[in-house]
């Protein structure tokens, strides 16, 4: 098994022949926008100023614009003669028919239908149109009925599994015994360890594209501060959209061969002079960047020999819930407050968690160490 076996055929052939050679360059996009412009341009009103369009485009992430676009495409499929969104607002009866069609004909998950309706409601507002979708009793009851009916369906839902410490060690073992290039092993393994112990959303540290990156979103070496016994990582644009970003402290975890501090320092040391401050942390020697998609697909391939089909239930996001799940399984050691603070989940009670003092974080990590050590016995 080799790392390039997980790459697209074209890139794989180029790497084998030695033709592939390039330096990833930052995408020229606004700070709070990824590649939204094309989708936003299609969904936003055509009669507003371009400056307004740029700001509205930056109001949502690329994934949210994609969801809005999927909702509109589904609506167009429902009514093929729908010319464009300028014909809105939609009559509420048409929306009700669309709702039942999505559930009964398209067999969409009730939550997906909710998301589509929310997107359609948002597009209405962006066009300055009033919408009766939110709060319509019949629509709410149809969706509730669909949710109730799912309890009677003889379907085993595939739920995303969580990466625990034992699973992380299996991944490390499979990487170690693979025939990947040494540097490829270090890059990928470091991403696994950092994602696990930092409870990161992978979009906070990895690039969306293997050949280019947004310097405002991707983790760069300049975003990492190495201290005597810890590492500080700056997430510039977290999901919470905190103005100054978020700061994540990582501490030593000894005795298990997966210490986040040691692993990150080892990767930095192995790069020597090749690790420029502006470079992405998770970049392979070939110049390709590790992306969320390639990370997820590779994790599945790594775990399949050990756990079979269940490997398909793991993805990049499985790492984020690892430590919080372990903490919640031992309520005597860790409180709910510790879990929320470490996982950086926002709520009315924990809006100030991003300003946690260093000593508080270290205290929480001692609890994490205790729980993980017990879990591994």
Structure description:
- The protein has 377 residues and is mainly α.
- The protein folds into two domains: 37-150, DNA polymerase, domain 1; 165-376, Intergrase catalytic core (hpI Integrase, Chain A, Orthogonal Bundle), CATH 1.10.443.
- It has helices spanning 9-17, 37-43, 50-57, 62-78, 92-104, 110-126, 137-150, 165-177, 182-198, 260-271, 292-307, 322-328, 336-343, 358-376, and strands at residues 25-26, 212-213, 224-226, 231-235, 246-250.
- The strands form two sheets. It has a three-stranded antiparallel β-sheet with strand order 3-4-5. The chain has a two-stranded parallel sheet with strand order 1-2.
- The chain is globular.
- The model is unreliable at 1-34, 82-86 and 347-356 (pLDDT under 50).
How would you summarize what this structure contains?
The protein is mainly alpha-helical. The protein contains 14 helices and 5 strands. The chain has 2 domains: 37-150, Tyrosine recombinase, N-terminal domain (DNA polymerase, domain 1, Orthogonal Bundle), CATH 1.10.150; 165-376, Intergrase catalytic core (hpI Integrase, Chain A).
Architecture of the largest domain in CATH?
Orthogonal Bundle
- Structural class given helices, strands, pairing? mainly alpha
Low-confidence parts, pLDDT < 50 over ≥5 residues?
1-34, 82-86, 347-356
- In which order are the strands of the major sheet placed? 3-4-5
- Main pleated sheet: 3 strands, antiparallel
CATH topology of the largest domain: hpI Integrase, Chain A
Number of domain modules: 2
Give the overall shape, derived from the CA principal axes.
Answer: globular
The CATH class of the largest domain, by name, is Mainly Alpha
């Amino acid at each position: 098994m080799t790392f390039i076996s997980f790459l697209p055929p074209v890139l794989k052939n180029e790497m084998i022949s030695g033709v592939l050679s390039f330096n990833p360059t930052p995408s020229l996009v606004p700070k709070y926008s990824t590649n939204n412009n094309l989708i936003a341009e299609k969904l936003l009103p055509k009669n507003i100023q371009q400056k307004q369009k740029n700001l509205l485009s930056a109001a949502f992430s690329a994934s949210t614009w994609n969801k809005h676009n999927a909702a509109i495409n589904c609506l167009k499929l429902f009514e093929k003669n729908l010319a464009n969104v300028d014909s809105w607002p939609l009559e509420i009866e048409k929306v009700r028919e669309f709702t039942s069609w999505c559930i009964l004909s398209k067999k969409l998950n009730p939550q997906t239908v909710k998301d589509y309706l929310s997107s359609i409601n948002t597009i209405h507002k962006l066009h300055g149109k009033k919408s009766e979708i939110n709060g319509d009793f019949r629509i709410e009851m149809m969706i509730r009925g669909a949710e109730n009916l799912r309890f009677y369906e003889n379907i085993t839902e595939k739920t995303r599994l969580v990466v625990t410490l034992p699973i992380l060690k299996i991944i490390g073992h499979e990487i170690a015994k693979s025939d990947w290039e040494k540097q490829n092993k270090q890059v990928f393994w470091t991403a696994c360890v950092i994602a696990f112990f930092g409870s990161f959303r992978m979009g906070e540290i990895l690039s969306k594209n293997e050949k280019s990156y947004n310097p405002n979103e991707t983790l760069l070496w300049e975003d990492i501060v190495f201290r005597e016994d810890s590492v500080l990582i700056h997430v510039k644009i977290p999901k919470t959209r905190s103005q100054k970003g978020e700061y994540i402290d990582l501490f030593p975890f000894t005795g298990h061969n997966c210490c986040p501090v040691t692993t990150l320092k080892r990767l930095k040391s192995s790069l020597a002079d090749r690790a420029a401050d502006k470079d992405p942390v998770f970049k392979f020697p070939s110049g390709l960047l590790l992306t969320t998609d390639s990370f997820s697909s590779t994790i599945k391939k790594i775990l399949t020999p050990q756990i079979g089909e269940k490997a398909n239930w793991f993805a990049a996001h499985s790492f984020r819930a690892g430590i919080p799940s372990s903490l919640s399984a031992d309520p005597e050691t860790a409180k709910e407050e510790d879990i929320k603070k470490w996982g950086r989940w926002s709520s009315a009670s924990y809006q100030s968690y991003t300003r946690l003092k260093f000593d508080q974080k270290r205290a929480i990590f001692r609890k994490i160490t205790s729980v993980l050590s017990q879990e591994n016995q």
